[in-house]
Design a protein that fits this description.
The complex is a heterodimer of chains A (679) and B (412). Chain A is an alpha/beta fold and 679 residues long. Chain A is 47% helix and 14% strand. In chain A, the strands form 4 sheets. In chain A, strands 13-12-11-14-15-16-17-18 form an 8-stranded mixed beta sheet. In chain A, helix 17 links the parallel strand 15 and strand 16. In chain A, helix 10 runs antiparallel to helix 11 and helix 19 packs across helix 21. The two termini of chain A are 41 Å apart. In chain B, strands 1, 2, 3, 4, 5, 10, 11, 12, 13 and 14 form a 10-stranded mixed beta sheet that branches. Classes of the chains: A alpha/beta (679), B alpha+beta (412). At the A-B interface, helix 14, helix 15 and strand 13 of A face helix 1 of B.
Chain lengths: 679, 412
């Protein structure tokens, strides 16, 4: 049986090949292999579930007559077991209830099979895939970094409704079930085993044989049902609710609804609990929050698969500048598997950068994101280089040096690079077009704008000039995808996209503050609106000096509509925000310790206007409209996606343009999304 | 037979044990030097035929240190690696190993050198303890384990510094410093002469510019760049040296910490190859290895090693001591170098003029990372020949356990 050699066939293979192939292993053991031929991943759409139901019909019959003694599920895909439900089908279903019923009933039938069933998991096993595995008697998984198991539904504004909320607490207990479902993450194999999601880890090559051995042995772990959780359920539920409310401010219904369903699951019969799952998900699926979160998920998918046909393979990279951004970029690239030379002008700035890199690796190791061996290998990929030296064999150079045109020009001119090397610049303030014009070959310069901190922010603005060649742009897009970031393509213009939209909002907030409104009230209002932090706190986070620099650039570029507020114009050098301990707020050990009294006492207090959020966001939205009209980006989805991923703009609102449509804040009543467009 | 060319070389700064390089283990140090050599020369690592590094302490967590360093420096796994150990001459031995292969036409490009982290030599449990711990691990039931634990005594927990063991010759029972005192007595070399030689080493080193051969090392935990050797005392004086107490022989001894080599961390990496490969890689040879000799001698008088090695080398190559424009004799101890000079003269082998000997100081000022020093002497000698436009250098080291090694380097 040569299942390991099978790779997904190229696209164009007939989609009507059955998604499940059944093989007799002898002795009444059946192997059901999942392999959606027309896709890279196995997902559970209604067609697949119906196919499974058809097989179940046959298996129930064979179980009755004794010719079926055991069932093994596994996947032929190289790195996916089952990636979950078909999100698009769910989003577009005219009768979502029917889809929920189909999944619940099919998995219940699987759980009811009188013979032992084993899920042999290698690769991603998420959402519906995990629900299928939970309906099996036993779960074994491969000891492989590709194996990741969990329930991501809550992140999408939904909850597991194919039996996940019902079966998980019975399997692992209430507190772990809550952590897993609310956590909305995918766990690697070892962690999944510790949580009780899988019973054993084996090398990938041994999954099937081990499943057969377990079936032959015939004895399976006794499951306890964890009924002793019942008395603690209300306490756990209340504690979880408090935590969720603190984190989400009541803007995200899904986690709260999930808490209700999961904590009630053990109290009720399985069928009652399944009914509760169904009613919960139908309720959630109708919410705007869910629609917007699903859109974000699909936009992430779009960014991941943005076509880049002319991309060249990047094997070796270099990062110029070992400052905060440069060291963060270099560490990320090395952690993702690419050799990177980190260069700076001298050994001392390099040493400081290497210390930042080392801290990032230590953190990643401590949080279990990398094993010690992986971290060692990643550290070794990063080679420090002080001063000069040829970079001729480097395919991509990322420049993250000082934000001064003269310095960057001189730097790029002096670099010894190969004839095909692509330059990417991380500049956020300077004109890439101007920089490109100084190069002998301007077609090789593209903007690659990362966000701070690099290890947390997944957005990268890929900025193209009129000179940039399609190869250069595609290479940067493809590399961005390869290192696990989301690219958005932006035309070179002041502030690119995110900063250009963010600054008017931030400056308006400062002006409102200067006008007398209390700073904590401003920030609270916008947090309640759904922003991860208020605008003044965000300015402190970015750094007031950095914000002032970007502000100057943008005000200089758009003097007709942007002016620097007095506070930022004459910025006191000690006032740099969180990094200097003092900004709008005071900071102690990096945490907010109160407002900055010097700023608070200056003007006569004013009451905040009722429409504060609208006032601050209108300039952002107007600027977004201009970006669309000037074709800085291709479509409104890009803007919403970029603002959510780059600034944390309330994801449940779907981004600034969705918000504008929903609240009627578009300039002159403009609607950014035509009515008919659904997901 | 092919000529053996030294094509390029680089070293980390040398730092006294327990100071700026102590956070880097031997593999880190080796990687620093090797990565820098690759970056400086632009050589594609896939072209290397083998990596051969000297290392005395051989860290337990990096078996075959050369292999660990090679893989961690991005050298492809298809390139084999070998770690050699001839005590203090390990760095030179690595060069000899590659040279033998090159002369025979086996391969054309070798990455060689030496590494030592004396800061990270482990402390060891006595063998009695090791046996008892094994017994505990092998015991099956909890009761048996408790019984096995009961065999442990307090003395089983007293750790022995591995470094101390490594610097003692088990055959004659003397540590390195004690062998130096033997020479002091037998050659009647007094404290003042030794201190004067030590001062010379510091003065010469302080007046030298090693920036060309050094590549920075990084302590990433503390965010520090280490760019300089830190053993050199530019303000060293006879008065300061006179204050130190002898450490290997109480009361009557003459060898002190000040007139001995320092215990140091460091690494050196060099490319050795044929003329043909040099041309292909666009590298100009720094010089050629034109003679080598290794001899055994009395472990009690190991410091005499260079005398016999030089004797053998001169006999085999037909050259004379006067033919050396520069001489590097490793300064394991001031008294050891002085004794060697005396004996070379006494045996009629020759006299080494003061202005040709260790012109940039030596291990007394720079330190002696035992596995690396042999390679450093070669690098320093070649840099000196290039800078002064001279032709021939003689490099020699004494070796703990009673050996000597010597080599001719020429610019041709």
């Amino acid at each position: 049986m040569n299942t390991l050699a099978k790779n997904s066939p190229p696209p164009g293979v007939k989609p009507d090949l059955p998604p499940i192939q059944v093989e007799e292993l002898g002795d009444g053991i059946v192997l059901a292999q999942w392999d959606r031929r027309d896709r890279h991943a196995n997902i559970l759409d209604s067609h697949t579930l119906q196919t499974l139901a058809g097989h179940l019909e046959e298996w129930e019959q064979r179980a009755r007559d004794g010719s079926l003694r055991g069932l093994i599920f596994w996947s032929a895909k190289p790195s996916v077991f089952i990636a979950g439900a078909d999100i698009r089908e769910l989003a577009q279903a005219s009768n979502p209830g029917a889809l929920v019923d189909l999944g619940q009933k099919t998995f219940s039938r699987l759980a009811a099979l009188p013979v032992p069933t084993i899920a042999a998991i290698h690769g991603v096993c998420a959402g519906g895939g995990l629900e299928l595995a939970l309906a099996c008697t036993v779960r074994i998984a491969s000891r492989d970094p590709a194996t990741r198991i969990g329930f991501p539904e809550v992140q999408l504004g939904l909850l597991p409704a194919w039996g996940g909320c019902t079966r998980l607490p019975r399997l692992v207990g209430l507190s772990k079930a809550l952590a897993i479902i609310l956590g909305s993450r995918l766990y690697p194999g070892a962690k999944a085993k510790r949580l009780g999601l899988v019973d054993a880890l084996v090398p990938r090559e041994r999954l099937i044989t081990q499943a057969q051995t377990l079936l032959a042995r015939g004895s399976f772990p006794h499951r306890s049902s964890h009924l002793w959780d019942l008395p603690f359920a209300p306490i756990l539920a209340a504690w979880a609710r408090r935590k969720v409310e603190k984190l989400t401010g009541g803007n995200y219904p899904a986690p709260l609804v999930a808490i209700g369903v999961v904590t009630a699951a053990q109290r009720h019969s399985i069928s009652d609990s399944l009914a509760a799952e169904k009613s919960a998900i139908l309720k959630l699926a109708a919410t705007d929050a869910c629609h917007n979160l699903l859109r974000v998920f699909l936009l992430q998918d779009r960014a991941k698969h943005l076509p880049a046909p002319k991309a060249r393979t990047v094997r070796k990279t270099a990062v110029i500048g070992a400052g905060v951004m440069g060291s963060g970029i270099a560490q990320w690239i090395a952690a993702r598997g690419w050799p990177v030379v980190l260069r700076d002008v001298g050994a001392e700035p390099l040493a400081r950068g290497l210390q930042r890199v080392e801290r990032l690796f230590s953190q990643a190791q401590k949080r279990g994101l990398m094993t010690a061996t992986e971290a060692r290998a990643a550290r070794d990929r990063l080679v420090p280089s002080a001063g000069a030296g040829s970079l001729a064999r480097v395919d991509l150079v990322v420049e993250a040096a000082v934000e001064r045109m003269g310095v960057k020009k001189a730097l790029l001119a002096a670099l010894e690079i190969g004839p095909e090397t692509i330059f990417a610049t991380n500049t956020s303030a300077l004109s890439i077009t101007t920089l490109a014009a100084t190069l002998p070959d301007p077609s090789r310069l593209v903007g690659m704008h990362f966000f701070n901190p690099v290890h947390r922010m997944k957005l990268v603005e890929v900025v193209r000039t009129e000179f940039a060649s399609p190869e250069a742009v595609d290479t940067v897009v493809a590399f961005t995808q390869a290192i696990g970031k989301f690219p958005v393509i932006v035309r070179d213009s002041p502030g690119f996209l995110v900063n250009r939209l963010l600054l008017p909002y931030l400056l308006e907030a400062v002006r409102t503050f200067e006008g007398g409104v209390d700073m904590m009230e401003i920030d609270r209002t916008l947090r309640e609106f759904g922003m991860p932090m208020g605008p003044l706190r965000l300015l402190d986070e970015i750094g007031l000096d950095v914000a002032a620099e970007v502000g100057k650039t943008l005000c200089g570029a758009f003097p007709d509509r942007l002016q620097m507020p007095t506070l930022l114009e004459n910025l006191d050098p000690s006032l740099r925000g969180r990094k200097s301990g003092l900004g709008f707020y005071r900071y102690k050990n990096g945490h907010v310790a109160g407002v900055n009294p010097k700023l608070s006492n200056r003007r006569s207090p004013q009451v905040a206007p009722d429409d504060l959020a609208a006032r601050l966001l209108r300039p952002l939205i107007e600027e977004a409209a201009r970006c669309l009209d000037e074709k800085v980006v291709a479509d409104p989805e890009t803007i919403d996606f970029a603002m959510i991923m780059g600034t944390g703009f309330a994801p449940f609102r779907g981004g600034p343009l969705r918000t504008a449509d929903a609240e009627g804040w578009g300039p002159s009543g403009r609607k950014f999304y035509p009515e008919e467009k659904s997901l | 037979m092919n000529r053996v060319a030294i094509l390029a070389g680089v070293r980390t700064p040398f730092a006294k044990m327990g100071t700026s390089l102590r956070e880097l283990d031997a593999a880190d140090l080796g990687r620093t030097a090797v990565a820098a050599l690759l970056a400086r020369t632009g050589v594609d690592p896939a072209r290397i035929d083998e990596v051969i590094l000297g290392c005395v302490a051989q860290p337990p967590d990096a078996p075959n240190l050369a292999r660990v360093v090679a893989l961690r420096s991005g050298i492809p796994e298809s390139v084999p690696a070998l770690t050699v150990q001839r005590n203090c001459a390990s760095g030179l031995e690595a060069i000899f190993e590659a040279a033998r292969r090159l002369r025979m036409g086996e391969g054309s490009l070798y990455l060689v050198g030496g590494v030592e982290s004396m800061s990270q030599v482990p402390f060891l449990f006595p063998q009695s303890a090791a046996r008892k711990f094994s017994a505990v691990a092998a015991a099956k039931s909890p009761l048996q384990k408790i019984w096995a634990l009961g065999a442990l005594r307090l003395k089983d927990f007293r750790p022995v510094p591995g470094l101390k063991l490594g610097l003692t010759d088990p055959v004659c029972g003397l540590n390195m410093g004690e062998t130096a005192e033997v020479l002091a007595r037998e050659f009647s070399i007094g404290r003042e002469a030794q201190d004067a030689f030590a001062l010379r080493s510091h003065r010469r080193a302080a007046a030298s510019d090693f920036r060309n051969e050094i590549t920075p090392a990084y302590d990433t935990r503390h965010g520090l760049a280490i760019e300089e050797d830190n053993g050199i005392r530019s303000g060293q004086s006879l008065a300061a040296l006179a204050k130190l107490k002898p450490i290997f022989e109480e009361e009557t001894g003459t060898v002190t910490a000040g007139n001995s080599s320092q215990i140091t961390d460091g690494a050196v990496a060099l490319f050795l190859g044929t003329d043909a490969v040099a041309a292909r890689l666009g590298l100009t040879p720094m010089g050629y290895l034109t003679g080598s000799a290794v001899v055994g001698c009395d472990p009690v008088r190991m410091g005499m090693g260079p005398v016999f090695a030089i004797q053998r080398l001169l006999a085999e190559t037909g050259l004379r001591l006067e033919d050396a424009d520069r001489v590097e004799i490793n300064e394991a101890f001031a008294v050891q170098v002085l004794a060697v000079l005396q004996q070379l003269k006494a045996l009629g082998i020759g006299e080494i003029p003061d202005d040709r000997l260790n012109v940039h100081g030596g291990a007394i000022a720079l330190g002696h990372p035992v596995g690396a020093t042999g390679a450093r002497l070669v690098l320093t000698a070649l840099e000196e020949l290039q800078n002064q436009n001279l032709n021939r250098a003689l490099v020699s080291l004494c070796v703990g356990g009673g050996q000597g090694a010597a080599a001719w380097l020429e610019r041709l």
